[in-house]
Amino acid sequence: MSLMVQKYGGTSVGNIEKIRNVAARVLESYQQGHKMVVVLSAMSGQTDSLIKLAHQMCEDPDPRELDVLLATGEQVSIALFTMAVKSMGYDARSLLGFQVGIRTDQIYGKARIQEIDTKRLFDELEKNRIVTVAGFQGLDEDGNITTLGRGGSDTTAVALAAALKADVCEIFTDVKGVYSADPNVCPKARKMDVVSYDEMLELASLGAKVLEIRSVELAKKYNVPIHVRSTFTKESGTMVIAETKDMEKVLVSGVAYNKNEARITVKKVPDRPGTAAKLFQPILSAGIIVDMIVQNPSESGMTDMTFTVLKADFVKTMKIVRNIAEEIKAEEVIGDENIAKISVVGVGMRNHAGVAQKMFQILAAESINIMMISTSEIKISCIIEEKYTELAVRVLHKAFELENGALQEEK
Amino acid sequence: MSLMVQKYGGTSVGNIEKIRNVAARVLESYQQGHKMVVVLSAMSGQTDSLIKLAHQMCEDPDPRELDVLLATGEQVSIALFTMAVKSMGYDARSLLGFQVGIRTDQIYGKARIQEIDTKRLFDELEKNRIVTVAGFQGLDEDGNITTLGRGGSDTTAVALAAALKADVCEIFTDVKGVYSADPNVCPKARKMDVVSYDEMLELASLGAKVLEIRSVELAKKYNVPIHVRSTFTKESGTMVIAETKDMEKVLVSGVAYNKNEARITVKKVPDRPGTAAKLFQPILSAGIIVDMIVQNPSESGMTDMTFTVLKADFVKTMKIVRNIAEEIKAEEVIGDENIAKISVVGVGMRNHAGVAQKMFQILAAESINIMMISTSEIKISCIIEEKYTELAVRVLHKAFELENGALQEEK
Q1: A264 and A168 together in one domain
Q2: A42 touches chain B (CB under 8 A)
Q3: Full-model pTM
């Protein structure tokens, strides 16, 4: 007999009928003899409605009270779900963050789970009850309600699986698994049967929005196997697990893109110690996250600094940078919102040369200009003109043989 | 400096604008130097919507889970209210039942408060924060969420006032106070400036729906002065307090009516020990509350038993009674839904004879037939035909001089 954590997202519990279907699905696993812990998100649209309500009340709602408000969304879904299970003749209990003892830090709106007291959970499981836990919420050490931020229910599920030493954490969503590329852009994208935590981290942060990135970090830390699958089919989805020897046989496992960034270049900055610090300090102080940073080799004591920020922060950042540019006597500041980041990801890159070279050649063959490059052990990212995004994804996906069974899981 | 508990009902916090107005009103009291604890109900309509949702899920929702669901209503209002107060520049904190330590028994849907841990409340008040508490909810000794039933927020407010030894518990509602009769029926009804706990208990249970009856019992037990007043005016309302000598000078302080009961008569029951027990045991076992019971004097070993139940329980009760009637060899069972109960209430009755006699005469003068009579120390109730309800209220109200300043608070 195994212990299973299942998490269902907002679209899976979007209305009464869907919640009833999820109950039936959970009962199937229960009847197979698994001990079941079920984590639910708020019904789809619910969190957005609550945020809207808060903003009708005031421009900048108090973060503590916003968390009190938002936490009701999940409370509604677990109550309704547990009613459904009980009306089908099975014993179940809903538990809120404070009842499970999900202890977090004090950062309202994006709290991190620090500890889970498993006693109550094990007590309920002992009684053969299906335990339903509100996702997305916890309690700080002073007993205040906190929420974990967007996608927080994934993190709740993985954290519970880790604390309970569950055999698997199944994440049910509205897609069939993790794809080698966005199927909307690349119709020949393949569902991956297996992907490593590290690859998933790169794919998630690059825009493959299937799993919340912190949940993957957590799963990696505690070695929790995640099964990402669809609520609406019985097919198995994608297993996200620790890296295996087999995975290294494949150079590239996926191609991701991200259109949410903008690029800023500061031209002809005096190339001396402290310039970079002077430039980035006020940006970071303003809470702006800088993603890629590239500095060109110096020419006659001058250098160009280029970096990317989220499009949402572009205007704010340009304003800050223009002020500093004057101060550090830079020649010019250039901004560009029409860019995209294309990345190829794969643990196989670690031991194989030539992936970068191949990527550049493929893009060049389509006359796609590369504006910035950044690499990690298992990923190569290029900034290109936004209009070429879909083309780039498709040609890279084809060139790295992702379409035709080159993935190890197909062997 | 005094400590004040204020409670605002669902219509007072029915939308964003109204919540903002309540915040402004609370701040007025705060600025006058009072320490403030604010108890809120769910936004009007919210609790009903949630109940509807539960019944869409299943016919007979699990009571534990229904409480988890319903408790979200008050959580939403306190979060929004506290945001409003903070956006106006004042410090405030919302607290849920579990955070305040409102310990109840385990009867889901109509739990009773057993204990309140005041530590957290006093801590927050020490910091000069306005403390907002979710009404209607608590936690049982196993850490499950419970709700207190309809009107439960009144009880929360009075219980908090008792536990904190507050100077006053102000109950804000959509009427100006407690009236000598229903103003819709009796346009000359007067708002009472003061009424005793006992009178209020009789008036509340008889249908003057201003204050939840358990909250009045609690206020009486702990001698908490209640001020019932309108959210929408500055006028003072009605003080509900312990009986004073002055109150006894008035025979009748109010006239109440109740159209929610039905009458059942069991004709010619053998008049011997155990008959009443046999008749009522199965009714009470079915959870049906019997209000008035009258047994006529025995004639030749036979007696008639008449009693009233809620109209909602009428059909169910008739079915049960017909079965027993056969068993105990009663002659006939007669039911009547078209009745009303008219009551006159006043602590002055204790020391003055003749109130009953006067009531009977006044009703007789209007040719209103009395079907049943029941009396207590401070109340006389008569069952009459429903169609005479309004007429009876008006003539009694006039005859007992409630219209023209006869109340002690007018002196």
Answers
A1: no
A2: no
A3: 0.85
B chain contacts of residue A78, beta-carbon cutoff 8 Å: 68
Q: Do B16 and A53 touch (CB under 8 A)?
A: yes
Whole-angstrom Cα distance, residue B240 to residue B168?
Answer: 10
- CATH number, residue B17: 3.40.1160.10
Regarding whether A132 and A32 lie in a shared domain, the answer is: yes
Give me the helix-helix angle, A16-31 and A63-87, nearest 10°. Answer: 60
Do B166 and B252 share a domain, yes or no? no
From B137, B156, B174, give the residue that closes a domain. Answer: B174
Tokens 């009486």 belong to residue:
B220
- CB contacts of A62 in chain B (<8 Å) are 82-83, 86-87
Length of chain B: 411
Is B76 near chain A, with CB under 8 Å?
Answer: yes
For residue A301, give the CATH number of its domain.
3.30.2130.10
B60 has a chain A CB within 8 A of its CB: yes
Closest by Cβ to B80, choosing from A69, A79, A87: A69
The answer to whether residue A82 neighbours chain B at the CB level (below 8 Å) is: yes
Angle between helix axes B314-327 and B275-285 (nearest 10 degrees) is: 140
Residue A229 covered by a domain? no
Q: Which long-range contacts (CB under 8 A, 24 or more apart) does A356-365 make?
A: A356/A380, A358/A399, A358/A400, A359/A396, A362/A395, A362/A396, A362/A399, A363/A392, A363/A395, A363/A396, A365/A395
Q: Which of A92, A98, A154 is nearest to A125 (CA)?
A: A92
B113 and B258 fall within a common domain: no
> Is A319 part of a structural domain of the chain?
yes
Asked if A152 and A254 sit in the same domain, the reply is no
End-of-domain residue from the set B174, B199, B224: B174
Asked whether B410 and B283 are in contact (CB, 8 A), the reply is no
User: Which one, of A191, A211, A189, A185, lies nearest residue A200 by Cα?
Assistant: A211
Number of domains in chain A: 2
CA B177 to CA B183: how far, in whole Å? Answer: 11
Please check whether residue B71 lies inside any domain of the structure: yes
Quote the domain boundaries for residue A152. Answer: 3-174
Residues B166 and B34 in one domain: yes
Give pLDDT tens digits along chain A (411 positions).
Answer: 699 999 999 999 999 999 999 999 999 999 999 999 999 999 999 999 999 999 999 999 999 999 999 999 999 999 999 999 999 999 999 999 999 999 999 999 999 999 999 999 999 999 999 999 999 999 999 999 999 998 899 999 999 999 999 999 999 998 899 999 988 899 899 999 999 999 999 887 666 678 888 899 999 999 999 999 999 999 999 999 999 888 888 889 999 999 999 999 999 888 888 888 888 999 988 889 898 888 877 777 888 889 999 999 999 999 999 999 998 889 999 999 999 999 999 998 887 778 988 999 999 999 999 999 988 889 999 999 999 999 999 999 999 999 854 443 333
Q: Measure the CA dihedral A323/A325/A331/A333, to 10°.
A: -70
DSSP three-state, residue A20: helix
Q: Based on the fold, state whether residues B152 and B290 are members of the same structural domain.
A: no
Tell me the pairing of strands A130-134 and A35-40. Answer: parallel
